[in-house]
Amino acid sequence: MHRYTSILLFFLFLQLFFAVQPCHRVVTSAAAGGRWQLLQKSIGIVAMHMQLLNNDRVVIYDRTDYGKSNISLPHGKCRNNSWELVIKYDCTAHSVEYDVLANKFRPLMVQTDVWCSSGAVVPDGSLVQTGGFSDGEPRRWYATNHILPDGKQIIIGGRRQFNYEFYPKTSSPDVYSLPFLLQTNDLDSENNLYPFVFLNSDGNLFIFANNRAILFDYKTGKVVKTYPAIPGGDPRSYPSTGSAVLLPLKNLDAATIEAEVLVCGGAPKGSFEMATKRKSAERKFLKALDTCGRIKINEPNPQWVMETMPCSRVMGDMTLLPNGVVLIINGAGDGTAGWENGRSPALNPVLYWPGGAAGSRFEPVNPSTIPRMYHSTAILLRDGRVLVGGSNPHSGYEFTRVLFPTELSLEAFSPPYLDSKNKYLRPKIVSSTASKGKYIGFGQKLWVRFKVIGTLKADMVSVTMVAPAFNTHSFSMNHRLLALRNENVTYVRTSIYDIQVTTPSSGYLAPSGYYMLYVVHQYIPSIGIWVKLYS
């Protein structure tokens, strides 16, 4: 009898332990959707940075200064670099290319240390990586990149860098001062790295750092608008890492287009200092923030509207799904970003429905079993799944005797719209005037032929364009979604329909480059097709 009592008490302890963990792995109801798939047990490196390319391959890279990875470079290649801190002659890879369609990967060779760097895909589809550590140009360490309407990119901030510059270089001076970054810099903790940057519909840049934001005219170097600090005043930028998205842009032919930014999670003031005390007995991991702030940045008197998430989250990633819903995934419930600074993994993703009624916009979905802590990533794939990888809160690769082992795996999260029960509502793109290999211009008519097996609700059909993101450190750079103006839906034959839409009118709304285009029916998206928008 004593044995059974002990077993019962043990399971009661486990239930109590997990019950007090924010966003712990909970038993979800039958109504909860989404599913997880382990794609690769190990790709040999930590997925610290990820970028999807228009060939359905993902460039993934880690850092080079911790020693050997778990995958070798091919054909006896080695990297000989006197700048390296640990291994100067290194025959292992610190980057891989993941083939989404084949579910295979191959090693790539990096030339410099890309640790905590940034990047963007330029209009021709090439990935330009900038910054990093040591020989990777430390001036742009923890910076943010954004593609501009003319196809160039701006690189903003970085550790102890209160300025910005452009790539490719066009004129001198090479670097321009941005006092806002100095004003948002907290002594000892910074809390303004990897600023959240979005191209506004008027061509200016919305820049959020720490707990406040500006609208910035990068051409003149002037602040156009200063926004109020987010209520509560707690930091949301690295290392008190929250995340942010520019909500879907709609009504693209309006005189003034409503642009709205959503910022979620982060850590209270002082969290980084408490988590990094030198004496382990003094270290404390404060509960992360459980709030989101939403602001309409083009209003004459913009104000933050606050909402409460189902759980607290720091180091979470926010990804725009093809149907305009926001996925909040990864991260922790306590602590901050940084080595060994996070606790209580946030295993349950949450969907945020921007158009839902206030107070009912959050929808928890099925959890993962793998903690994705510091140095985790998540990006949208063309088929509507979300690729999830990374997690390494250690200075090197540690697989045993640590709370959260280094994670080399790749998973795919399939949102509820991919559940089999939705197969009769799911559109399938048959053809389009924007088929692969063809350019589409600004402000042009575009038609898409699609198939729906079940009953079509024509007033619930839309076409969206999504820019693939460069994701690292809980921020998806250059990520944006545009809901194209729907002209009409026409019946062609059984289960086949045409929809005509209009493309964005300028590079202010959608910079030139590759986008994933989807047909969405009753919030169920098709598999996307690649299109190239070009002026």
From TrEMBL:
Domain Glyoxal oxidase N-terminal per the UniProt entry, residue ranges: 48-137, 139-417
Matches recorded under Pfam families: Glyoxal_oxid_N, GO-like_E_set
Keyword ATP-binding: no
Annotated signal sequence range: 1-19
Keyword ATP-binding attributed: no
SUPFAM superfamilies (UniProt xref): E set domains, Galactose oxidase, central domain
Organism: Populus alba x Populus x berolinensis
Swiss-Prot/TrEMBL keywords: Signal
Ranges where the Galactose oxidase-like Early set domain occurs: 426-532
Protein name (database record): Galactose oxidase
